[in-house]
Amino acid sequence: MSLSFTPDELRFRDEVREFIAARLSPEMRRATSLSVSFFSDPDLVAPWQAALNERGWVAPGWPAEHGGPGWTATQRWIFESECSRAGAPQLSPMGIKMVGPVLIRFGTPAQKNFYLPRILSGEDRWCQGYSEPGSGSDLASLKTRAVRDGDHYVVSGTKIWTTHAHFANRMFALVRTSDEPRQQDGISFLLIDMDSPGITIRPILMISGDHDVNQVFFDDVRVPVGNLVGEQGRGWTYGKYLLEFERGGGVNSPKLRAALEKVRNLAGSDLSHRAIAYPEIAMRLSEIELDLQTLEFAELQVLSALQRGENPGPVSSLLKLRASEIHQAISRVGVDVVGQNLMVEERRRPLAALNEELLVSPEVLSVVPRHLNGRANTIFGGSSEIQRDIIAKQVLGL
Amino acid sequence: MDLAQSEAQQMLRHSIERYVTEHYDQQRRRQAAQDPGGFKRANWQAFADLGWLGLPFAEDVGGVGGGSVEVAILMEEFGRGLATEPFLGTVLLAGALIAKCGTPEQQAELLQPVIEGHTLLSFAHYETDARAGLSTVRTAALRSGSGWMLQGHKTNVLDGGSADSHVVSARLPDAEGGGIALFVMPKDAVGLTLRDAPRLGGGRVADLTFDHVVLASDARLGSSADEMTAIEAAIDRAIAAIGAEAAGLMRSMFEATLEYTKVRKQFGRPLSANQVIRHRLVDMYVQCEEAKAMASRAALMIDAEDVAIERSLVASGAKVKIGRCARNVAEQAIQLHGAMGVTDELDLGIYFKRLLVFEAMFGSVEYHLRRHVELLARSRPE
Ligand SMILES: Cc1cc2nc3c(=O)[nH]c(=O)nc-3n(C[C@H](O)[C@H](O)[C@H](O)COP(=O)(O)OP(=O)(O)OC[C@H]3O[C@@H](n4cnc5c(N)ncnc54)[C@H](O)[C@@H]3O)c2cc1C
After folding, report:
1. Which of A112, A253, B275, B378 is most buried, by CB atoms within 10 Å?
2. Which residues in chain A have Cβ-Cβ distances shorter than 8 Å to B205?
3. Of all atoms in ligand 1, which is nearest to the CA of residue B266?
4. Which residues in chain A have their CB less than 8 angstroms from residue B207's CB?
5. Smallest Cα distance from B260 to chain A, Å
6. Distance of alpha carbon B114 from alpha carbon B99, whole angstroms
7. pLDDT band at A249, cuts 50/70/90?
8. Strand, coil or helix: A127
């Protein structure tokens, strides 16, 4: 067992650092550091994705034949760490980490040829249509229907909590194509063009005031049969495959480390009147640091297993559970760091664009919305309660 | 011993409950947020007409002569209704300080219009480099002719933007002992700049800058060499009051969650049918009851305790205990609502934000835990 990087890996790390130094502008860093939502604003992401795409670095997890860089798991970890450390915007995971891998595994050659390059270039922006008003944790109960009519499916129903539907031109959706006794068997995986007639988007504001999620209505929307992924009625399997990527994928710790560093810097600065001088703040930060080191090592263990060709198994639930809790602990200690200055509520976005003199600095203003938005970490992508159920069933055999 | 509320207190509770039920709902709340100051003047006038603005003041200045128990009854209901009227800043902080430190003439002149609902006040005390410590006051009061000149900066002033006058703390020159004095500064004083912003969860919060603000000699409240003791007492009482408000906020969040988990079905049954959810609801319930008990205890004892240490122990203790309960109830309420819980469509988020403000206001839970430890050591000498 060894934790140290090989000379090749160190050379790779330097290459990544050089690239970031050359292509990530201070403006992009500042805008990213002041962004408070889960996913970075698409306007902020686009130039960074373009730079990565030139270099072939957009999709670290994809095989080389589909445009991935062909990295080892360690290289991927190094890359993610360096990007987070430098404060680069997060590329939207929905194309790269979610629908991309599903298409690579289950898509037709035509689907791969058409969609994959457009994900890499950023030309297509994807959203995820799983949840419905009546189907959250119990996703298999979903009701949105897709009825076959010639060479089209006619889709009707509604999806909710659709992140960035208002920016997306495509949606991957789970829809009901038949009523099987086992609900999961009647579900199909469909790619929907968001410009199709019959789609309406209703914005939903978060308690922070941010507009990230939406409700999407389908009123007899015609979707070509060629947009079905895999077999009709097997969508549940593909969807679960995707969820494992959404949850695990293995690497949350670099992002969390960057978030923790941000709070630590705030705590050490005049903006918080050096909150770190207070033992309760310093102790919280150290406790979180230890939780994070633990998560980091667990993630590295999974990466190492993947690299040896092993299957990580249901550990992705454990990683999701802890990562989301650590994320919340970080944003929570941020709130304690700013103290009474949390009282100012600022709902204008992006914070980086607010140039006039504010009652408190944008760094301080970003803390509360980040905390409020962060409450969703233990809810989406399978809530903590559901993750515990999965671990109870699949790991403990209960 | 008798911990039952008196008949008068019960009547007060019923009337405030009724008022809140009739006048506060989501739509009206959203409208009020658009009004200058972020609250409805009509409510404020109604509070005056119902005698609530005079509750804690002595009868000889036109008040009702009530105490912290009555204040707690009001505050709990204000919490439940998410009221944004500036009762805390005007009555419980600035008003209380005038009542405590002002001369009889100042009291008569300043408190009557407050009680009648004609003027609003704010208490401008905290400064940028004071995390919670009350004594970090750098704003300076210098002699200027027969009066005073104030120079400095105040922050986190509750509803400062709607105040007609501010009660401002400032440090006296060394020649006069270097203690903290209190001044009443009209909102249109020359050299006063006020900037305000919406406050998390409702109401507003302001920053005040004093650039050679000249005040007449009678602007100083009383003449004590140091008003720190009075400020500390007012803030201790305010902490007891916001503890009651927090108990009301928590209660509303809990009830909404209980209702939601009974109605929301997943996997073919209500969420509340899951044992893990039931136990969590029970814990939330226990914490709501604890918070309420602690708030009632604080309300009863904060007036009775003349000794500063005892009074501060009560306040800090309430802040710690209620703060700990509040955090868990608030976070669980959001969690159990799932994605609905993190949206602006329910009021849940406003309750959540208010409880964040409660935790931070007048010093964090940890600050008060430390204060409690120190006070306890002092109150029990070896
Ligand atoms: C910010 C955000 C972004 C999102 N983005 C997307 C998106 O892009 N696309 C998409 O499809 N969905 C998205 N979601 C939806 C998300 O996947 C769901 O919120 C999640 O699956 C939970 O469903 P629910 O909100 O309906 O909660 P519910 O299922 O109603 O659950 C409410 C609470 O009860 C608990 N609970 C439920 N069942 C049980 C049980 N059997 N035992 C114990 N506890 C239980 C839950 O854990 C939760 O705490 C997003 C959600 C959020 C908050």
Report:
1. A253
2. 343-344, 359
3. 38
4. 359
5. 13
6. 12
7. low
8. strand
The 3-state DSSP composition of chain A as helix, strand, coil percent (nearest 5) reads 55, 15, 30
Q: SS3 for A171?
A: strand
Looking up tokens 């969420």, which residue turns up? Answer: B271
Q: What is the per-residue pLDDT across B44-70, written as a single tens digit (0 to 9) for each?
A: 999 999 999 999 999 999 999 989 999
Q: What is the DSSP string of B136-199?
A: ----EEEEETTEEEEEEEEEEEETGGG-SEEEEEEEPPGGGTS-EEEEEEETT-TTEEEEEEEB
What's the mean per-residue pLDDT of chain B?
A: 95
Yes or no: say if B180 and B227 are a contact pair by the CB < 8 Å rule.
Answer: yes
Distances (CA, A) of A68 to A53, A71, A120: 10, 8, 9
How far is Cα B284 from Cα B327, in angstroms, rounded to an integer? 10
| Tokens describing residue B194 | 């006020």
Catalytic residue among A82, A132, A246, A363: A246
**Alpha-carbon span B44 to B52, nearest angstrom:** 10
**Pick from A359, A375, A385: CB nearest B207:** A359
State the closest ligand 1 atom to the C-alpha of A212, by its place in the atom list counted from 1: 1
Which residue has its alpha carbon closest to ligand 1 atom 23?
A: A136
Q: Which residues pair with B58 in a beta bridge?
A: none
pTM attached to this predicted model = 0.96
Nearest CA to ligand 1 atom 33: B336
Tell me the C-alpha to C-alpha distance, in Å, between residue B335 and each of A191, A204, A336, B173, B264.
31, 18, 20, 53, 13
ipTM attached to this prediction:
0.96
pLDDT confidence bin for A248, thresholds 50/70/90: very low
Q: Is residue A109 reached through a cis peptide bond, with omega within 30 degrees of 0 on the bond before it?
A: no
Residue B296 neighbours by CB distance under 10 Å: 21
Question: Which of B138, B342, B367 would you mutate first to test chain A, the one with the most A CBs within 10 A?
Answer: B342
How far, in Å, CA of A169 to CA of A113, rounded?
18
DSSP B88-107: IIIIIIIIHHHHHHS-HHHH
Planar angle of CA B374, B377, B380, nearest 5 degrees: 150
The answer to whether the Cα torsion of B324, B330, B331, B336 is positive or negative is positive
Query: What pairs with residue B193 in β-bridges?
Result: B209
Atom in ligand 1 nearest the alpha carbon of residue B276: 43
Cα angle B48, B54, B57; round to 5? 165
Based on the residue annotation, tell me whether A246 is a catalytic residue of this protein: yes
| Partner residue facing B267 (CB), from A138, A357, A380 | A138
CB pairs under 8 A between A and B: 134
Taking Cα atoms as reference points, which of A283, A203, A190 lies closest to residue A229?
Answer: A190
Residue-wise pLDDT for B222-250, tens only, equals 999 899 999 999 999 999 999 999 999 99
Amino acid at position B221, single letter: L
Asked if A218 and A245 touch (Cβ cutoff 8 Å), the reply is no
Reference A88, options A128, A131, A46; nearest CA is A46
* Cβ–Cβ contact A381 with B under 8 A: no
Angstrom CA distances, B124 to B120, B169, B178, B200, stand at 13, 7, 19, 18
Q: Which residue has the tokens 């097997």?
A: A234
B143-153, pLDDT tens digit by residue?
Answer: 999 999 999 99
- Among A341, A368, A375, beta carbon nearest to B342: A375
Task: Return residues 342-361 of A near B (CB < 8 Å).
Answer: 342-347, 357-359
Report whether A239 contacts A184 (CB < 8 A).
no
Which chain B residue's Cα is nearest to A341? B156
Pairing of strands A170-176, A126-129: parallel
Strand residues in chain B grouped as ranges (E): 121-124, 140-144, 147-158, 165-171, 180-186, 192-198, 204-215, 265-266, 269-270
Q: Which residue has the tokens 């008798």?
A: B2
